[in-house]
Amino acid sequence: MILQxxxxxxxxxxxxMAHGAGAxxxxxxxxxxxxxxxxxxxxxxxxxxxxxxxxxxxxRKGPPxxxxxxxxxxLRQLESVSGPLLVGGKSMGGRVAxxxxxxxxxxxxIAFGYPFHPPGKPERLRVAHLQDPGKPMLIVxxxxxxxxxxxxxxxxxxxxxxxxxWLEDGEHDLRPTKASGRTQPALIAxxxxxxxxxxxxxxxx
Length: 205
What we know:
Elements: E1 2-4, E2 13-18, H1 28-39, E3 42-47, H2 50-58, H3 67-77, E4 85-90, H4 92-100, E5 108-112, E6 137-142, H5 150-153, E7 162-167, H6 184-204
Parallel strand pairs: 2-3, 2-4, 4-5, 5-6, 6-7
Antiparallel strand pairs: 1-3
Helix pairs in contact: 1-6, 3-4
């Protein structure tokens, strides 16, 4: 577990943020995203799911735990957090956050690159729980993300509580094409700004 606070005395809320399926909590992407979220006044608590803890300890890859185990591991992390709370994560981590949102004390959830479906398998949707009313959720998605592109997501009839922020030319980890003239750090900073605005709105309600 890694808990970091923004500089200065002002703290908007704590975001408990989980990693994606293939990379740990201290991957370059997670480090860059955390750094930018701190500038938005968010404290960030990162943690690892049990399979990733095992992978780190044994040095061999294994598949993610079943969803119920991922959910339990996420909920346990919330027990030590006080004050305004958000849950979220990268890809699979954001998906798990969306599953536990309603049973948690969190104000809302933030998913960075939501895996609407596996790449190349648009029929295997993971959106049923996002079509019902509930707590607010923000999904920050690159327009080139193979896990869900704009022309696909518009057909999913997501609940009004689900807010989508599309980042132009971003892939699943927000890497843009060279032709775009943009950079991954710039897109990650943009993602954090959108997340910060979402958090401020929830705190003000």
